[in-house]
Design brief:
Number of helices: 11
GO molecular function: ATP binding; ATP hydrolysis activity
CATH class of one domain: Alpha Beta
Largest sheet: 6 strands, mixed
Protein name: ABC transporter ATP-binding protein
CATH superfamily of one domain: P-loop containing nucleotide triphosphate hydrolases
Keywords: ATP-binding, Cell membrane, Membrane, Nucleotide-binding, Transport
CATH topology of one domain: Rossmann fold
Bound molecules: adenosine-5'-triphosphate, magnesium ion
Organism: Parazoarcus communis SWub3 = DSM 12120
InterPro entries: AAA+_ATPase (IPR003593), ABC_AA/LPS_Transport (IPR051120), ABC_transporter-like_ATP-bd (IPR003439), BCA_ABC_TP_C (IPR032823), P-loop_NTPase (IPR027417)
Length: 275
């Protein structure tokens, strides 16, 4: 897709009306090693409420590792993370979910044999209070809760325009639609912060355009903070409020798209002249 198209998508969803809020996640001097591999070295940046914050950089730069730190999957050896101003304790992924953080993965992580509907339903797991025991004892309450979950899932299905495939096993869908189902599952958790690891990778132009529009709509209509890893620079520069650039695990740029685009270190990293 042309960059102008993306810009039109951005403005048509009313990006200007969005209010970027306070810092919700503040990452300070994060370093992460795997044995001898330094995946992240002394990285600091913050994420503000309601913004689209992109993380870019060449392959192996540490982008996915950074998402895993934010998500509580990886625990950095050094550094501090403040969540709404409070230092975050060592956390597990389910704790991130409880803080309103949901994600999609670089490699689609869905149950291929299950239907679209059932896959999206798994995104509600954390919200379900009633377990089997409750179901047995308090049938009415469990039933009401089930109805509420179904309603939320149907809303997400409508929002992402996937009604026609709701009963299809995910494994039978083309790649682009599987990516959309994964987004649906993340949205079913009603996150305040959505981490997207290359949501448009491997998509054709039309699929990319759709995904781009959905990301902007989620951000605009629900105010969801988006942390986006994406290799397509046209998309990144058009829809991001701020961009952080990683290279070999180090931060080499951070700022609004126009600033980052003209940063000599960033240009060098992408042209491969700095190494
Ligand atoms: N679980 C792990 N164990 C060992 N090394 C890891 C692990 N996860 C990441 N790494 C290493 O950390 C570095 C950064 O990897 P990461 O996947 O974060 O990069 P990336 O920027 O997401 O790359 P890509 O664009 O290819 O997805 C790489 O050298 C990678 O091999
Ligand atoms: Mg990655």
């Amino acid at each position: 897709m042309m960059m102008n198209d993306m810009a039109n998508v951005a403005s048509s969803t009313g990006g200007g009306g969005r209010r970027i809020g306070e810092v919700i996640l503040d990452l300070k001097n994060i370093s992460l090693r795997f044995g001898g591999v330094k995946a992240l070295t002394d990285i600091s940046f913050d994420i503000r409420e309601h913004e689209i914050r992109s993380i870019i950089g060449p392959n192996g730069a540490g982008k996915s590792s950074m998402l895993n730190v934010i998500n509580g999957v990886y625990h950095p050896q050094e550094g501090q993370i403040l969540f709404r101003g409070e230092p975050r304790q060592k956390m597990e992924p389910h704790m991130a979910a409880a803080q309103g953080i949901a994600r999609t993965f670089q490699n689609i992580a869905l149950f291929k044999g299950m239907t679209v509907l059932d896959n999206i339903m798994t995104g509600r797991n954390l919200k379900m209070k009633c377990n089997l025991f409750h179901h047995a004892l308090f049938f009415g309450k469990a039933q009401r809760e089930e109805i509420e979950h179904r309603k939320k899932v149907e809303e997400v299905i409508d929002f992402l325009e996937i009604q026609s495939i709701r009963k299809t096993p995910v494994g039978r869908l083309p790649y682009g639609l599987q990516k959309r189902v994964e987004l649906a599952r993340a949205l079913a958790a009603e996150p305040t912060m959505l981490l997207l690891d290359e949501p448009m990778a491997g998509m054709n132009v039309e699929e990319k355009q759709d995904m781009c529009r959905f990301i902007l709509d989620v951000n605009d209509q629900f105010g969801t903070t988006i942390v986006l890893i994406e290799h397509d620079m046209g998309v990144v520069m058009d829809i991001s409020d701020r961009v952080v650039v990683l290279d070999y695990g180090k931060k080499i740029g951070d700022g609004p798209p126009d600033e980052v685009k003209n940063n000599p270190d960033v240009i060098a990293a992408y042209l491969g002249t700095s190494h």
